[in-house]
Amino acid sequence: MKKNLLLFDKRLKSHHDSNSLINKYIKSERADKESFELMLQEEPDSRKKAIYVHTPYCDKICSFCNLNRKQIDGSLDSYAQYIADEFDKYGQTNYFKKSEFEVIFFGGGTPTVYKPHQLEIILESIKKNVTLAEDYEFTFETTLHNLTEEKLEVMMKYGVNRLSVGIQTFSDRGRVFYNRTYGKEEVVERLKKLKAFFKGDVCVDIIYNFPDETLEEVIEDARIVKELELSSASFYSLMVHDGSKLSKDIEAEKVKLEEDMKKDYLLYQHFVDEMLREDKYHVLELTKIAKNDGDNYKYIKVRNTGGDTFPIGVGAGGSVNGVGVYRMNKEMSFYSKQTDYHERFSRLSGFMQFPVINKADVKDILSEEEYKHFAEKMRDYQSKGLLNEKEDSFVLTQDGIFWGNNISSDIIIYVMEQLFNK
Hints:
Elements: H1 18-22, E1 29-30, H2 33-39, E2 49-55, E3 57-58, E4 70-71, H3 77-90, H4 94-97, E5 101-108, H5 116-129, E6 132-142, H6 149-157, E7 162-168, H7 172-177, H8 184-197, E8 201-208, H9 215-227, E9 232-237, H10 245-252, H11 261-276, E10 281-285, E11 288-291, H12 298-304, E12 308-312, E13 317-320, E14 323-327, E15 333-337, H13 340-351, E16 356-358, H14 359-365, H15 368-383, E17 387-389, E18 393-396, H16 398-402, H17 404-420
Parallel strand pairs: 2-5, 2-12, 3-4, 5-6, 6-7, 7-8, 8-9
Antiparallel strand pairs: 1-15, 9-11, 10-11, 13-14, 14-15, 16-18, 17-18
């Protein structure tokens, strides 16, 4: 086992919430609906803007999922109309009237569970109320089994230009474990047809390290992504969440899964090595490898570099002009006012999601003292082989990308501790 595997007790497998880290030192302030809606009538600032639309419904629940979703048990007509009405409502504000949006992202759940006429209702409302930037990105997360040509026709008619398909793995064994529809051969054929029909980027999610997954299986996943010339592949290590079907199955069988760090590391390295072979793909973000002329993933770039994410739909969360917004249900939202520290260190955490961290970007948001502590910690990680310092940037090594979420979390904790002596 490489020495870099012993640097942390546990690997953080997702982007750690920077606000929760900062809240240990500085509490965010409460905000309210009235002040938020007054703010939306003011002249919008110049920061980049995205819209996140949440669909908390699926027609089939994956074994690993604990996200804000439930299985459909009736028509989605009323929910589709609710989403359209939200766009009509906010479309009357100056924030919407005077802004260009870089990104619209439909997540879930599974946003392609809507019927074609329901998609038409939602997308027509967006067309009326949202001005998109010239080089916009418009994404729908989807599965293969509920995506039809009729739905795709409606989506393309309204400018959808990116699909994120939840594949998880092409391995037949893995697909059974994840409770996915179709076997490997059917998945490959459907992706080929989708690529031929859809006018835009086709991206996939890969989840590695299911029980007994072999190196051959994870390498095969990478090879198929490349053979199909998909625009990008997000790659995540399996997380067993409380509340997921998988966690309940494990509890029922009295099986305790402890993270096998060596296996996690080996699967990660083999997937990345295979994806980067031939130099046709590159690491775009800690958990995404993109085709050189493919996916730009503007959604995460806007979110992670200080832009707004306007949330619409039950379970949607985002931040607008420094105000955090979480839609608890159709009638109620929770609002919080971020402090200067929350805003700045959230941006720092966002910068740390990319393999190249530009020094000028960090210096723009940190004080001289804060940057001094940041650079101290980064140089410590350089001594451990996790990054290389250049004249104008810090560049994560492949091991550094593997540990990227830990590095981001530790950097924030270290700087805050130096500032507040805690």
